[in-house]
Amino acid sequence: MRTEAHFPRVGLDAGHYESFYIKATRPTGGQGIWIRHTVHKRPGEEPTASIWLTLFDADSPGPRSAKATFEAAELSAPDGAYIRVDGALLEPGRATGELKTPALDASWDLEFDDPGPPFRHLPYQRMYEGSLPRTKLLSPYPSARFDGTLTVGGDRFDLASWPGMIGHNWGTEHAERWVWIQASRLAGEEGSYLDVAAGRIKVGPFTTPWLANGTLRIDGADHRLGGLGSALSTKLDEHPTSCEFRLPGKGLKVRGRVSSEARNFVAWVYADPEGPEHNTLNCSISDLELEIERRGREPERLELSGGAAYEIGMRDTDHGIPLQPYPDG
C-alpha cells in the first residue's frame, strides 16, 4: 500500500474532497485514458462518490467522456485496496470497473506495476499532517506501466505496457488556480517521468505567485523541482490549451512547453466542499517540449508527442472548451 484513503476518517461536520486517478497513454502517443475515483463531502452532509472516464484520441473529433455519481453506501476503502466506488475498484496492481451512463458505457480491467518509489509533491511530512496546505497530493505510482483491456462505447482497446501514472490528492479546498503537467517515458527511457503540480493560493484578498512542486526522473536520478524557496524563479505562462514554464531545481533548470489543440481537451466542473467551483481542462495526449540544463553539461532537449498531461483549473468560464454536463458534489 503506497498511500491510503483519507475519507473514512473525516467527521460529519467537516468538508473534504479526494481523488485517485489513472492516466495512461499509448506508447506511440495520440491515445490515452484518464479514470478518476472521487469523493466529495460538504460540511454536515454524507459524502458522494463519482467515477469519471475520458478516452482521448487524436484521430477523433474530440474526447469521449462520462461521469456517474453515487451515494455514500456505494463508497468504501476495502482492506488491501485504495478505494471502491460502486463496482469500480482500485487496489495495488489492479484497477477494474465499469461505467454505465446515457452518454457512454465503458469498462476496464487493468494491471499495473511500478518498480520505482512513490513521489510526494510536498517536501515535508508535517505538510501532509497539518491543515495547511489545504490540498495534499502525491503520486503513489509515478512511472507505472499498464496492461489489460478497456472498452468504451463498444470499442475495445488492448493496453500493452502503456506508460502512465496513478495519482492521489485530497483536502478541504482547491487552489485558486492550478496547473498539472505530467509525462512518462521521456526520450524512450523506461521509468523516466516529469510530474509537476503548481498552484496560486488565495490568502484573504490576495493571490500568491505560482508555487510549484515536482520532480524530473531522468538517467536513473530524481531531481526535485520548485519549492517554496524557488517561488520567485518559478515561471508559468498558462493558457487554456498551452503552458510555457520554467522550473528551478537543485543542480539543474527545466523549461518547456506543453500544448495541444483545443479539440483534444475535456472540461469539467470541480467544486470545493464549501461551494465555489472551478472549470478544469485536461488533455492527456498533449505534446511536450522540454529543455534540461545541468551543470557542466550541454542543454538537453526532449520532445514527447501526444503523451503528456496538461491540466489547468481556474475560475474562468470563457476558455472555449465545451463543459461536460455533470455537476460536482
Q: Kindly state the mean pLDDT as a whole number?
A: 96
The CATH topology comes to: AttH-like fold
Percent of residues in beta strands:
over 45%
> Helicity range of the residues?
under 10%
Our count of domains comes out at 1
Order of helices and strands: EEEEEEEEEEHEEEEEEEEEEEEEE
Number of strands: 24
The CATH class is Mainly Beta
Which regions contain 5 or more consecutive residues with pLDDT less than 50?
Answer: none
| Individual helix count | 1
> Describe the biggest sheet?
12 strands, antiparallel
Please identify, by name, the CATH architecture: Beta Barrel
Protein structure class:
mainly beta
* Radius of gyration of CA atoms, rounded to a whole number: 19 Å
The termini sit apart by: 27 Å
CATH homologous superfamily grouping: AttH-like domain
Shape call: globular
Keywords:
globular, mainly beta, 24 strands, 329 residues, single chain, 1 helix, AttH-like fold
Tell me what you see in this structure.
This protein has 329 residues and is mainly beta. Helix content is 2%, strand content 59%. Strands 1, 2, 3, 4, 5, 6, 7, 8, 9, 10, 11 and 12 form a twelve-stranded antiparallel beta sheet that branches. Strands 13, 14, 17, 18, 19, 20, 21, 22, 23 and 24 form a ten-stranded antiparallel beta sheet that branches. It has a two-stranded antiparallel ribbon with strand order 15-16. The radius of gyration is 19 Å and the shape is globular.
